[in-house]
Design goal:
- The chain is mainly alpha-helical and 505 residues long.
- Among the domains are: 106 residues, no CATH class; 98 residues, no CATH class; 108 residues.
- The chain contains 23 helices and two strands.
- The chain has a two-stranded antiparallel ribbon.
- α4 packs across α5, α15 packs parallel to α17 and α18 packs parallel to α21.
- The longest helix has 26 residues.
- The relative contact order is 0.05.
- It comes from Diaphorina citri (Asian citrus psyllid).
Length: 505
Amino acid sequence: MVYSEYVPGPRAMLGLPKSPSFHSGLDLLADATTATPTAPLPSSAAPPEFPATNPFTLAAIKQSIIDFNLYSDISDMSSTEGESDDSALMFAGMQLPSLLDASSEHRDELFVQKIRQCCVLFDFVQDPLSELKWKEVKRTALLEMVEYLTAQDVHISEAIYPEAVNMMTYLFSSHVRRFLESPDFQPNIAKKYIDQKFVLQLLDLFDSEDPRERDFLKTTLHRIYGKFLGLRAYIRKQINNIFYRFIYETEHHNGIAELLEILGSIINGFALPLKDEHKFFLLKVLLPLHKVKSLSVYHPQLAYCVVQFLEKDPSLTEPVVKCLLKFWPKTHSPKEVMFLNELEEILDVIEPAEFQKVMVPLFHQIAKCVSSSHFQVAERALYYWNNEYFMNLITDNATVIVPIMFPALYRNSKTHWNKTIHGLIYNALKLFMEMNQEVNIGWEKERMRDRDLTWSRVEALAMKNPHYKPSLCNSSSSSQEYLGGEGEEGDGSLDREKIENEAYE
């Protein structure tokens, strides 16, 4: 029996075509032009064997069903060696008997044949109208197997496991998920076929450009992780390796979002206290993913994973926040908005004690964002003031936070070009004023002391100027003239209050 040409790359390792185009799991590509059927087996021959590494061609699967009917009593149809090729094709195009109609002793054997029948690959790109009869046969078989596996009283024998795993190498569709979710699925039997090699090849397929295929792969890998306890550590390790390669080498992988989505549910199931292995994964694998240029593709899933870790172990808040501030973008405004989104999610779950450890560097960064000339960055930062828990944290630590934030807010209320930002700033200032009057009064007094000290230094420098007027030495009031003559109007004299206001504005 001759099979189609083998496709190089990760797909070839599982027998998958290079660029599948999924239509209900039926339209995997194959080259059937090179396949030639062989003579039928005699009635006493053993069941035909199919290699697990090469894709079935149309001629091969036809011959499989012909051979099957030679040694099976399931169907009344038969074939002889003298049949013509046309008769063989006519026979091969007919459907196998229904699983429900077959006797119990032949049902498993019939199920195996239907699995093999579904391993045929069709061309849905160059000639989508070809082989319509066979495509319909395959579609019917797929639907029948899904219905059969969903039944509560179904029994899956050991002979079905290698065939089902082999079929996984050709397509990922609902019947594969139903097979793994079947109440009669036995991991102890399946682990002989679903091993580390299979998982590694499965992970390689996550780089597919087809989002539908990645979604099927995601569901399949998640089911494998849940049912095969011995493979869990290996799966996490191999996902780490994919992330390392993505961060430090290629910066390109199509399945990062799907892998992070799987990890989100895995992290949610971590037992407490967290192992050092899991903490290392957060700090050395997940957080460096923020550095990659294509962050926007997978950022929601990444932020969810980070928040899951902080909910599990609040003591990780300080290293996580400091790492985010370290990776904070300087010139990429859309990426900065994403960081602000993630930071607010972290603030929603942060413990007050952990907040106090990071509030100073955190609010220095928020003050920079509020002062940003990019209105989307400033707007996103000012939306924090609509968060009730955020305002409670500020109220409890107002003596530290207000002196950091108030100057940036006040200065931006005068200088920012966007009117929407002005409104948000005035709202934030109003909340500050209503929040704690004593804090604001104390901050204003401190500001006045700083102003007087600044002017004292200015006057000390002015005294060194040979054109300095001695009359200014005794001026302790802000209303006395500075740089003026005898105080006439229109002579350019200015008092300290005017200078300060103009400088501040």
